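Practice set, problem 2.
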Amino acid sequence: MNVWIDLTNSPHVLVMRPVIENLRARGHEVQVTARDFAQTLGLCERFGIEHTAIGHHRGEGLAAKAGGLAARSLALARWAKRRPTGRRFDLAVGHGSNDITVAAALLRIPCATTFDYEWATVQHNVNCRLAQAVVVPAAIPPERLYRYGARGKIHFYEGLKEEYYLADFEPDPRVPEELGLDPARPIAVVRTPPEVSLYHRFENGLFAAVLERLRGEQAVVLPRTEQQRSQLQRTGGLIVPDHAIDAQSLIFYADLVVSAGGTMNREAVALGTPVLTVFEGRLGAVDARLIAQERLRRLRRAPDIELVKRPPAGGPAAARVRRDPAVLVDLLLSPTRI
């Protein structure tokens, strides 16, 4: 079978890496396209994922996003149709990628979409209506997806997507040293807000207060865009890597993670690192469950942050939940069995 996977944002590279490996191990051919946004291309290179770079992020406004969707979807369709080598695709797969879903619909290619945050209304109204399979965590009530056109298409998996793609993860102890971190002092990892996301279209004042609270500490801030990186580097007092790093190893050895997004929160949960969320959008079912289980905590005030050394990394790892990525692959392949 010939499978096409599209990557539009940094976390999608992590999610799809074991999926790509599993598909190829089963004897399937896999072709990957990727959008130039955040660290997507850099992570593809770091993980050795061969890809064709197509398109870039067009901006934050609705008009810019609509134009970007149309332009990149057409570019993907042209690429898929005119490839000089390889046969027609049997399946298209994306993690929240509207572009591949639209392109697949134009080319009449069966498509599977996956995500774990149910309130990205614009994204899901496109993907759930056009895709033949919608693969999501079991924590999400199915009725929340019906209004997007997902009824009859939903396939659930247990746990967190991070427990699947981190199943074979072993931390690299060199990463903290490469960033000049002192392991004897507390280490914080901070992830910036998804400012260009439609579901998070406002400034996060709490996040700004978090940066002030951690300024001068061993706080590594991981920006999403070059604009964020430049702004953070100008402020000083924070450690801002100038390239894509092994964030998962950094999280494993950190004493605290504070994130205004979702994926890094759940990576910390999966790796046993204490984590605070400052996400100000509508809370999704996955994070709501983690908060109820006290595996994730909401931060209300920056002064409440306690940055202290925790027991040596390795203890929490023993309790890690490692799930088989083959389960996700089977669900994503479901449109080919219709």
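Problem 2, part (b): a different protein.
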Amino acid sequence: MTSYGGNLVIAEHSVIVARGMGVRRGGRWLLRPVTFGVPEGVVGLAGPPGAGKSTLLATFATLRRPNAGALHILGHDITNAAGQRAARAAIGYLPARFARADHMTAGEFVEYAAYYKRTSVSAARSVARRLDLAEAARTELALLPPDVRLRAGLAAACVHEPDVVLLDDPFGELCAAAEPWPTGPTGPAGPGGHTLTAAMAELVPVLRSLAPTVIVTADATETLTGWCDRLLTLARGRLTEQPTHSAAARRGRSAADRRGADVPDPRAAVPQAILASDRRPAPPRRRAARRTLSDVSFPRLTLPRLVRRPPARSATGV
């Protein structure tokens, strides 16, 4: 998504295209009808609690339909069943809370996601190894630290190697764990702030390598500023693009920017975006080359010594 003359427009390489799309809940507009596009890269979506970020992300995940307008994901129209199935096969979605899975171990949770996505168990174990979950595989999710539990959620969301990953407030638990620090200050100089900063420094490269397009939500813009390629805010039903101050964006590291930098454009003086009325949804295309999880190095995790219980089994036998 780009902003031109104060209006949101559809970029040349838009993975998600919304035309006059509006989202309502409880009789009010969470997103007033608007036309926009989401390009490849890491896109942050910030807004106060209750603004509708989770509902909008669930709409992108095809879990609900927009109340107005049309929505295309990877060229598929999600208003019809065939397009919805095709889009879902290429989407990885992690909700803000997955408390119903707390009784499962990290390994069981990732393997169940592989079963749900019709992927092999070997693929589940492979992505778990890439995310350094070997030591946590037999530990229940409820007993894991927030950053390790988030890695298990990321592994489950990306077990089928999606093209679009939707993460609803992935740093929420980390922020909550850092704020009420009982033995010292809670600001950036306090122990809680240092713990949050260190955890995010390890997780941000992981998030950037999950898929060609990653959409991340957060309550505060400060959480997303500096590392997202695009930054949007949602408030009072209106979607607005904000400056990211991202070094990656300035150096043209997003997938769309890299593609534009490979070949000089003689129309460089013209903004590389077009109005929605002049652009059709992008057709399905081959996945762009990207940095994979295997390229990201992780520090070795040291889990606290716990009294291990036998792994709980779900009703489905996973």
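Answer key, part (b): Residues 2-90+165-295 form a domain with the Rossmann fold fold (CATH 3.40.50.300). The first helix runs from residue 53 to 60.
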